[in-house]
Write a structure and sequence with these properties.
The chain is an all-alpha fold. It contains 4 helices and no strands. The protein has helices spanning 2-21, 23-42, 46-76, 82-113. 13% of the residues are buried. It is an enzyme of class 2 (transferase).
Length: 117
């Protein structure tokens, strides 16, 4: 139980640091907060509402991992390293793919709500 408590504290500390230090994380937390009521308006079913919120959570998770990669890479060296640059670009691409996926889910749900499907 103590290990679980410590892991929870570490997770809270990591999220708090990410929110303080990264604008993208703050924006995605705002998007998550906004997605909660919007999912109830847009989602036609309970499952669709859960899916809409889950896609926003997924974007936040991937952004947290990308931020961790970038912080670690910057800690390793301050010199320009093409390989580290490619790793950072891949992390950014992962965030981009997640954003596109989330956007498509939301567009599909809107179309479904409007009776297009």
């Amino acid at each position: 139980m103590l290990r679980f408590w410590r892991a929870t504290i570490n997770s809270r500390n990591g999220l708090a640091f990410a929110i303080r230090s990264e604008q993208a994380i703050r924006e995605e937390v705002v998007a998550l907060v906004l997605s909660l009521p919007l999912a109830w308006l847009v989602g036609a079913t309970v499952m669709r509402r859960v899916e809409l919120v889950a896609t926003v959570v997924l974007v936040l998770v991937i952004e947290l991992l990308n931020t961790a990669i970038e912080k670690l890479a910057d800690r390793l060296t301050t010199d320009h390293d093409p390989q580290i640059g490619r790793v950072k670009d891949m992390g950014s691409a992962a965030v981009g793919v997640a954003l596109v996926m989330a956007g498509l889910f939301w567009l599909f749900a809107l179309a479904e709500r409007m009776g297009v499907f």
